[in-house]
Amino acid sequence: MYRYSNPPLDAVDAMVIATAERLGATKVATVDRKDFQIVVPVHRDMFEILPAELE
Hints:
With 55 residues, the protein is of the alpha+beta class.
């Protein structure tokens, strides 16, 4: 998270990302895909966003 000077994240998304990084989580469940697709976590290249497909 510290790599971004002005990330367009709301507080809840930022807390989910920070918690996932702290716990080493590789998967994140959300319906707000756009915010999680721009973030590069410190412990891997990207999060696996669940559900994989939204219809």
